[in-house]
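This entry is set out below.
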Amino acid sequence: MSDCNAYIQENRDRFLEELVELLRIPSVSADPEFASDVLRCAEKVAGYLKAAGAENVEIISTEGYPVVFGERHVSDDVPTILVYGHYDVQPADPLELWDSPAFEPVIKTTPLHPEGAIFARGACDDKGQMFMHIKAFEAMVQSDSLACNVKFMIEGEEEVGSAHLEPFLEKHKEKLSADVVLVSDTGIIANDIPSITVGLRGMSYVEVEITGPNRDLHSGLYGGAAPNPINILCEMIASLKDEDQRITVDGFYDDVVELSDKERAAMAEAPFDEEEYKASIGIGATEGEPAYTAPERMSIRPTLDLNGIWGGYTGNGAKTVIASKATAKISMRLVPNQDPEKITELFLRHFHAIAPPSIQVKITPMHGGKPAVTPTDSVAYRAASDAMEESFGRKPIPFRGGGSIPIVAIFEQILGLKTVLMGFGLDSDAIHSPNEHYGVFNYFKGIETIPLFHKNFAELNRS
């Protein structure tokens, strides 16, 4: 792979500049205001794929934002890798908490990134990690070292639940046929402790709306008799967890798989410094179910979190008002065997049941996804593990992540393909938060490691 690595080093500055250009596009899929930018980003990604050497590049329409597809066929005698990523990003709000504008990328050093980090929305999730694959592909094509057939499927709706990707997969099964899916939308434990994600939590996301009086009311004239939807919503949400942080939704834990002591002991081998963790996010203590450690609460246990809440007057000064409505967004992370549709139904029943008769409740399911566990005894996992061991100089640790990539379970269900989750981000990269960033070291380490996965996967499939 010496020629491939030489090409990467020779084009290092350009690879970084091109990522910066991609990050300038505010491809926020959740906000219709950015619709033209999302489409512009799809075109940009397609252009980069063509320039890298992909053939049959298409921007394929869906009922939502399009999927960018491209491929390169080496031989009928080698395996095919389907690379998945997404070009859409989370909203940048709250904008005032960014140290620099979210879509004006800057590179600066940090204690964890002495070589520099790229600060921009989408830098790590997922433009930087998706773009690693395009640049690694380019390096393999230009150095004549592409060992596998490659297909790219890069979507624009991951951050809003990939609602239109399932019918896309059904419609294009033949086009997407492959031997494995390779995804870089996860992370590593640390830059000197590589890891491969082998488990992801699922998701159920809902919006709840509480309506009381038929209009906003004067809190002096009506306070004490009229129901206050904001007060009631806060009380209802507070009741969703007990004093031990267990979720009180009836039936919520019925399908949760409990890990064995042996499995939990293996998880505990991954280094975790609770004091360092607390300091990194500025908290005085962690919380959660007492019988589980903080890493377990973040990976093998389900959660219920309030993601946003609003109602009434939030402007400057005072306005003595009882609001007519109050609204909240709630996410539930799910573990293996929990079904998102069942959990959503259980939540609907429970929330309606605890509502007082003075108000009306409207619940809108937003999106969801199934949890996933990937095998560690497969050829693909070994190819990834050996690749990371060679590039990092240390064998990676199998690690269960707390995030959700709903498409992983759908890949297996529709395409019959297992997924390898070989990501290079850090938990400290502030994805979904102000000042998201991605290390320059991590970006190029990914570009260096991906060709090794291709080489290993081809060789192991021949043996």
Remarks:
- The longest strand covers residues 202-211.
- The longest helix spans residues 440-462.
- Residues 2-200+371-462 form a domain with the Aminopeptidase fold (CATH 3.40.630.10).
